[in-house]
Amino acid sequence: MFIGVLFLLTACYRVCWCQYDLLDVVRGIRMSVNDDLFVSASNAFSNFAVLMHPFGNISAGEPVLCNMKYNPTDRFVHSVVVIGITKNSTDANQFMFVFAAEKMSTMTPIVCIGIITKSTCASTYACTDVAPAGSHQEYFLINVDTNKTFAYGLTNSFVFKLDIYANQIVSNFTTDDIWPGHGFIPRAIDIADTWAFVTGYAYVIQQSNKPYGVYGCLVDLSQIVNASCISIATDPSYLIPSNLMTYNELYELSVTIRGQKILVGVHRLSSVIILYNHGSFLNITSTYILSFISSSSIGRVVA
């Protein structure tokens, strides 16, 4: 009896921790940079590498590159996005970034704000639970608006809005509130000043028996709910939802916004798609299929 119980406990422990491959450097967006700050997260070493402006050699005693250890180490970082110099830093000595992670022992999704001091490398971070324990996420995206005021987190099951300086969740929705009836699975996000563009996989509304395709959704950040979505690419093979819910390199998507133009990369189809935001709706202006024998990563990152 004792051996049986011990075996079950051991099996559960291994299954829970296999949700998090600490050596996997492919999934997620664990590197972010702007004019003030560069941050890279390593789950294998439970560490953030933080490089701060001016990104070069400066006078002795003022370190530019700092290491910020996960504390506690029971964290799996999915995505990170930099803020830069904090608004209340009068001497440009404090820097801030936001990251989406999980407590591995309880599979609890969290969002955290990290602050680091350039002159000493002293650092702190504060985290908030955004879903109950046991809510492991294969994808957990995060991004911030252009004013660096709010952070937005997206998963397969929930979407939230975080007031960065108050460190407070001000809105929390299920994905059905945002993309009703589409069975939407977000894969990439970019944010402008008042709107965001999210791309992912979905089926045509009211036709859940149809194959999944690549969709792009325009999100009004003032209300978030009821995004406007259009189909931007169809896959010639049938995409099974269960295959899309877990990580697969072939299903990677990417997006970037410049002005009202949007560029989407579809790795599986070796395609890039250009869209235009007309304010209340989107339209596709160009689609390109690229083929290079020496490259197998087309569309995984766009800019």
| Architecture per CATH nomenclature, i.e. the level-2 architecture of the domain at 1-178 | Beta Barrel
Query: In the CATH hierarchy, what is the class of the domain at 1-178?
Result: Mainly Beta
Content of β-strand: 35-45%
What general outline do the C-alpha atoms trace?
A: globular
Biggest sheet: strand arrangement:
1-2-3-4
The parts where pLDDT drops under 50 for at least 5 residues are: 5-15
Say how many strands there are: 20
CATH topology of the domain at 1-178: Lipocalin
Structural class determined from secondary elements: mainly beta
Q: Return Rg in Å.
A: 20 Å
Largest sheet: 4 strands, antiparallel
Order of helices and strands: HEEEEEEEEEEEEHEEEEHEEEE
Mean pLDDT: 85
Give the N-to-C terminal Cα separation: 59 Å
Quick structural overview:
Keywords: Signal. The chain is mainly beta and 303 residues long.
Give the key terms.
303 residues, mainly beta, Lipocalin, four-stranded antiparallel sheet, 3 helices, signal
Can you put this structure into words, describing what you see?
Keywords: Signal. Residues 1-18 form the signal peptide. The structure is a single chain. This protein has a domain at 1-178: Lipocalin, CATH 2.40.128.630. The protein has 303 residues and is mainly beta. The N and C termini lie far apart (59 Å). Mean pLDDT is 85; it is low at 5-15. It has helices at residues 2-18, 175-178, 241-245, and strands at 31-33, 37-42, 47-52, 65-69, 76-85, 94-103, 108-117, 123-129, 141-144, 150-154, 158-163, 168-174, 185-191, 195-202, 213-220, 228-233, 253-258, 261-266, 271-277, 282-289.
